[in-house]
Write a structure and sequence with these properties.
By secondary structure, this protein is α+β, with helices and mostly antiparallel strands. It folds into 2 domains: 68-206, no CATH class; 234-342, Homeodomain-like (Arc Repressor Mutant, subunit A, Orthogonal Bundle), CATH 1.10.10.60. Helices cover 54% and strands 8% of the residues. It contains 17 helices and 6 strands. The chain has helices at 11-22, 27-31, 38-41, 50-64, 71-76, 86-92, 97-106, 137-159, 179-185, 214-232, 236-247, 255-261, 266-275, 280-296, 303-309, 315-326, 330-342; strands at 7-9, 47-49, 116-121, 125-131, 167-169, 196-201. A 4-stranded antiparallel β-sheet has the order 3-4-6-5, with helices on one face. A two-stranded antiparallel ribbon has the order 1-2. A hairpin with a 3-residue loop joins strand 3 (116-121) and strand 4 (125-131). Helix 1 (11-22) runs parallel beside helix 4.
Amino acid sequence: MATWPQQRSISSVQLLTQLAQDVGIRLADCLRTTGITIHQLNDNNAEVSAQQELCLIANLIQAQGYYRHDFGLEAGKRYHLSSYGIWGFALISSPTLREAIHLGLRYVDLTFAFHQVQLEESLEAARLLLDGSAIPTLCRQFLVDRDMSAIMTMVEDLFNTKPPLLEVTFTHAAPADISPYQQRFGLTPLFNQAENSVKFAGQLLDLTIPQSNPAIVQMCESQCKALLTRRQQRSGVAAKVRDILLTQPQHIPDMEVVAARLCMSSRTLRRHLLAEGVSYRLLVDEVRMALAEELLSLRGITVEQISVRLGYSEVSNFLHAFKRCKGQTPKAFKETLVANKAEPL
């Protein structure tokens, strides 16, 4: 099930269409059936839907007549932090790589990602995992190559050097020529693996980012939060569903119950939500995470109590869901809130 936000900046589409034209694909072929106009393409403040970007990517792949194995890698080289607006500025102003990653994951919905991204840490190593199971099959290899390559680009922007990696894995098969992958990642990746991942030494997480600035990163995060809130505001049928869910978060009703309250069948409700670019499950997750943030800001309430109030059958389910959506544990999120409140104005 797709979990990415419906709306996104047009910057990614601009980067991809420029890459396509550089390799000989006509602009008309890029934009075919996407609904994106030339006027939108030239407007840096425009937004497009995730489906429009996926349609454009499918056009690029089909326009070549075959999958060019380094096309995604080349695309990822163009996704500099400056391409992401305030999100990228927040990362480059963060104190360390660890804090940049955590901030980035908290607001990953402001990026162009189609993957669910997770950071795993052990004593000696750290891994970024990219789950692309919800991505349409035609676009999947291109997007994992693009996003893995874009990770390299962003770290290079942070430290002005290519990061030394321990291991890179892909779920897709190895192409006939793996040399572009070797050149991009500085090692020979493993293909046909269970996960898409980038593994690096754990001590890299504590590296100080040269352009870090606490005051700027705090301002940027505030703007990121405001922007994300605006994008997540719902209208139409989705807004009505969200209002119903907010009235009883401890006992989330199933879709059939909500549909009945809206005087329609569950099939009709599903069709309306699909037209608005969301799913019922995504709305449930949004409501629970929004309420979780509010509850975590209160004193004297435990994570276990929050889990019960939000209707999770097990605390572990709440912990997993929160970390997946916010990029950090509820405990770490609460500690950040407390630290921010303690800082003098």
